[in-house]
Amino acid sequence: MITVTHLTKRYGDTNAVNDVSFTVKPGTVAGFLGPNGAGKSTTLRAILGLTPPTSGGATVLGVPYAQLPNPASRVGSLLDADALHPGRSGRENLALAALAQGVGRTRIAEVLDLVGLTDKEARKRVGTYSLGMKQRLGIAMALLGDPSVLILDEPANGLDPAGIVWMRDLLRNAASRGCTVLLSSHLLHEVEQVADQLIIIGAGRILADGSPADVLGSTGRLEDTYLRLTATTSREGLAS
Amino acid sequence: MTTTADHSLHAPSDTFGSSPRTAAHASSAAPTVALGRLVAVEARKLVDTRAGRWLLIATFALATLTTALLAYGSAEFAPGKPLLASELANTAIGSLTVLLPVLAIMLAASEWTQQGALVTFTLEPRRLRVLAAKVCALVAAALVSCVVAAGLSLAVAGVASGIGHQRVDWRLDAAVLAWSAAATLLATLQGFAFGALLMNTPAAIVVYFVTPMLLQAVSAIGSKVADALSWLNTSSAMAPIAQGAWNDVHWGKVAVSIGVWVVLPLIAGSVRLVRREVK
């Protein structure tokens, strides 16, 4: 369960996130959509306690993320696949996270196997990884603690078509097991196939939030709805 | 389960890799992130990058080299006198003040310079606990380094005695070595405090090494200025104490300089850390 309540984040004069509220229930994959600079990443960072909100807030599993005991073991997140020390190997990055979370070593091999990184690749320094490999490692880190909530920012970024299909199955499966999944993405077609809830944000405000049937209405196509909803806000965004 | 080298991913059936969620796995994920585990993580970060490993190797190489030079010099220029093991160990521990602060700066600042902060503070959002864990890991590493450096210096003395046939006075002055270790620890903590405040590895290294030079230069203005600045010089403040000649003024200078160079930057860095947005 993820609950965002009247979340506002102001930088100087601009409201990056402006009175945003939404809820994602367990067993749901929520697609979080919006143009660049719409406030998606700021919202996700605020949920994870990385960005202090100007007002409002968010809870995960009923409490603010920072108050969860051992939060990463219950909430898996991937915000930036580049946010890993380039001088450490993939396996070492996982080992540090496992050590902090108190997760056993066998789990490291499991998640590496799961995301399709070979032993040889895992021993290489992350600085030598391609974007797709970093993304796989980031997903492995998110899954390390076998979490019941997943918060992923552009997880399919850099993945090949097979990887994207795998990602879709992973998310659907997680939701069917009762996981709460919040997924930001620009891949509308992918989101359309996987999401049971669509949250569209533009210029820091929620433009639509509901089931695909509710949000898409009679047009039935996510792309049309998305472009129509974000047309004005993205122009504003570019102008400011 | 099969593993293939071509990045093909697993069938959705084993989505979470749950080779049925093992009880061991479930129970090993402790309810809170214990401080001990965080300290272990930070200690591991000191040595698990090439930069960290080479810095430690260079640190101990320097300790060995300086003591070897001292032993050689003693044999060459004061052949009649015995080689003092205590002096060698003191020099070895003192040599740590050159590079251990750099390691400390890296531990404090590389989260920000080399990425990693996002993961670190997602794993443990209580940021001051992470800072405390880093300090604990660093203090332990500095003390172990002092013991290792002293051990290396004694090995040098052993070589001087065995191969160089130098007479060695093996008595160790515990008080002198303890003060030397304390000074090394302080220098290391000062480096850490600078790194924690500036959150930028190169900037902190530059400020750490330039500050004493600046103080020295400013001291040259006049004796009154020099006298005032002596309150800010940790090593000169500690020197008389190490030699057993201390009074209240000496202790005061030690306290003031530690306050200014370690405690204040650490407090300011903590405030900055708590407020900072992690991206």
From TrEMBL, chain A:
SMART domains membership: AAA (SM00382)
Query: One GO molecular-function annotation for this sequence?
Result: ATP hydrolysis activity
An example Pfam family from this entry, by short name, is: ABC_tran
Mind listing the UniProt keywords for this protein, alphabetically?
ATP-binding, Nucleotide-binding, Transport
Q: Which InterPro entries match?
A: AAA+_ATPase, ABC_transporter-like_ATP-bd, ABC_transporter-like_CS, P-loop_NTPase
| First and last residue of the signal peptide | none
The ABC transporter domain extends over: 2-228
Family membership: Belongs to the ABC transporter superfamily.
> PANTHER family, from UniProt?
ABC TRANSPORTER, ATP-BINDING PROTEIN
The protein's name is ABC transporter ATP-binding protein
Taxonomy, top ranks, is: Bacteria, Bacillati, Actinomycetota, Actinomycetes, Propionibacteriales
